[in-house]
Design a protein that fits this description.
This protein is mainly α. It contains six helices and no strands. α2 (about 20-40) runs antiparallel to α3. The longest helix has 22 residues, at about 75-95. The protein is globular and about 50 Å long.
Length: about 140
C-alpha cells in the first residue's frame, strides 16, 4: 500500500521541492488536528491547526531552505516511521480494518486527478478534482460492542 501512495505522490509532484515538503508537513499536522477533533479536544485542535496553517502558507525562500537544510533527517525519518506504526496501532486498538480503509482512501485520492493529472489549490496542495469521490469507510469499522 505504501508503494501505491508513493506512486500517487510521484505522479502529482515528480520533482518535489522544499516548499512541497513544508506544505506536506502542514497537511500531516492538519490530519492530526482532525483526529483530535474526533475526541472533542478543541483546544489542541486550535493550536495544531494554527501550526499546520503556518506550514501550509508560503515562507520566505531563505528561511525555508535554512530550516530544511539543518533538519536532522534521520530523526525526521524515524518520527515519520513511528507515526505510521502508531497510526496502525490506533486502528488496531479501535478494531478497524486499516488495510482495507487505506486502500479505499487511496482510491478516493486517485479520483482527485483529472485526465490523469493532479489539480492543485492556490497553496500547491492537491485539491479535489471534478471526478473526486469521498472514501466510504463505514465497512472498515469493526464492531466495538
Amino acid at each position: 500500500m505504501i508503494k501505491r501512495i508513493l506512486n500517487w505522490f510521484q505522479a502529482a509532484k515528480p520533482q518535489p521541492t522544499v516548499s512541497d515538503a513544508r506544505l506536506q508537513v502542514g497537511c500531516n499536522l492538519e490530519e492530526v488536528a482532525e483526529m483530535l477533533m474526533v475526541f472533542g479536544d478543541e483546544a489542541s485542535v486550535e493550536q495544531i491547526t494554527e501550526i499546520a496553517d503556518g506550514y501550509k502558507e508560503p515562507w520566505p525562500s531563505n528561511l525555508e531552505q535554512t530550516i530544511f537544510n539543518y533538519a536532522d533527517h534521520q530523526e525526521l525519518l524515524d518520527a515519520l516511521c513511528d507515526q505510521i506504526i502508531t497510526a496502525v496501532g490506533v486502528a488496531y486498538m479501535m478494531g478497524y480494518d486499516i488495510e482495507g480503509a487505506l486502500a479505499e482512501v487511496c482510491r478516493s485520492n486517485e479520483s482527485k486527478f483529472e485526465d490523469g493529472k493532479p489539480v492543485f489549490d492556490s497553496n500547491g496542495k492537491i485539491a479535489k478534482g471534478k471526478n473526486y469521490t469521498a472514501p466510504d469507510l463505514a465497512r472498515f469499522i469493526g464492531d466495538r460492542e
